[in-house]
Amino acid sequence: MESDEEEKQMFVELMQEEMAAAAQDDEHMMILGCLASMYAGLATGRRGGSARVRRKCKPRQRMEGYCMLYADYFADNPLHGESVFRHRFEQKAISANCKCTVAMRMLAYGAPGDTADDYLRMAESTALDCFYRFCRAVIAVFGDYYLRSPTVEDTERILATNEARVTKPVLYSKWLGSCSYWVRIALNIEGVEYEYRAVAWNDPDYEKINPIKYVPALQDGDILVSDSLAIILYLEDKYPQHPLLPQGLKRKALNLQIANIVCSSIQPLQCYAAVGLVNGKLGSDESLQIVHHYIDKGFNAIEKLLEGCDTKFATGDEVQLADVFLAPQIHAGVTRFQIDMSNYPHLERFYKAYMEIPAFQVACPENQPDAPSS
Ligand SMILES: N[C@@H](CCC(=O)N[C@@H](CS)C(=O)NCC(=O)O)C(=O)O
C-alpha cells in the first residue's frame, strides 16, 4: 500500500463489503469491529515520532492477511481445527533440546543468559527461566541421592581411591625367599613401581598383613593380596598390557603347570629342608640331599615337558609365567644348593637368557635392600 489514503480507502471498501454481506453472526460483527478500529487509528493520524519521510513500503495486504488468519484459526467455525493450529504454531516454540542446551551451557561455561541469543535464538529472560527450571528438575530427580551428606562408605571409598592414586603398592618381601623373587620379577615386567618393605624374621605385626605370616604380600590401595601366585595373577588382571599367560589353551596350561611345579612341588619341600637345617633337626648334608632330591625331581619333570623346545624362553620367545617361576628356582639351585645345571640343558639355556633381562636382574636377592652387604 503506497499511502495512508490508499489504506483508508481499502478499509472503507472492506467495511462496505462486510456490511453488504448477509452474515449477522458474531464472527461477522467482530471483523467489522476490527476494521472500524483500524480505520479509526489511521484517521486520527500518527502521534509524535520523527518527521515523516516517504519510504517505499511493500504492499503487504495486512488487512486481508488479518482476515485470513482470523478465518483460518480463530473464527467460531475456523477452517482448520485445533490440531492443525497446534502443529503449525506450537512447533515454532523453543524446543526442549534448546532449553536444556542453554541451561547446560550456562552451567558448564558459566555463560550469562544473554549469550544464548545468537546461537539458540533465545532471549535472556527465557534463557534464565530455562536455567532455573532445568536446575529445579535436576534437584527434584537426583537431589535425594547427590545432595545428601556423604555416608561412612562414601567417605571410605573416596579416601581409598585417593590413597591408591597417590600411593605405590607395597611389597612385603624378604630378600632371599624365592616367593618374593617371583613377585618382584612380575612387578618389574609389568613396570609397576612399588615400595619394598622388608619383613623381619618373626615380626609380630606382620601377622596383621598375612595371617599365615609368609612373605610375600602386596598392599595395593585397599587391596591386600598374599601368596605369590595369587599376587601374580592379580597383577596379570590389573595390567593386561603385559600378559604373562598366553592365549592358547595348551600353552597357557603348560605355563601354569611349570609355575605350579616350582611353587608347590619344589619350593615348599626345599624350604622345609632348609628350615630343618636352621632348627638343627637336620644335618647340612641331610638337608642338602633333600633339597637336591626335590629340585631334581621337579627339574626333570620340566625338562620332559619341554622336550624338543627350541625357543628362547620356556614357552616361547617372550617371557611368560613359567619363566617368572623358573628363574628364581634355578638361581637358588645354582647359588645356594650347588645344583649342576648341565643336567637340565633347557633350563640351563633359559637361565642364561633370564640373567640378561633387567627385570630379572633387578629382582635378584642380592640386589634387595635387606640383602646382607657382603
Ligand atoms: N605359598 C606361599 C608360600 C610362601 C613362603 O613359603 N614364603 C617363605 C619364603 S619363600 C616364607 O615366608 N617362609 C617363612 C619365613 O620366612 O618366615 C607363597 O607362594 O607365597
From TrEMBL:
Highest taxon above the source species: Eukaryota
Residue ranges of domain GST N-terminal in the record: 167-243
GO MF, any single term: glutathione transferase activity
Residue intervals of the GST C-terminal domain: 248-373
One CC-aspect GO term: cytoplasm
Pfam family, one: GST_C
NCBIfam families: maiA
Annotated protein name in UniProt: Glutathione transferase
Organism per entry: Lolium multiflorum
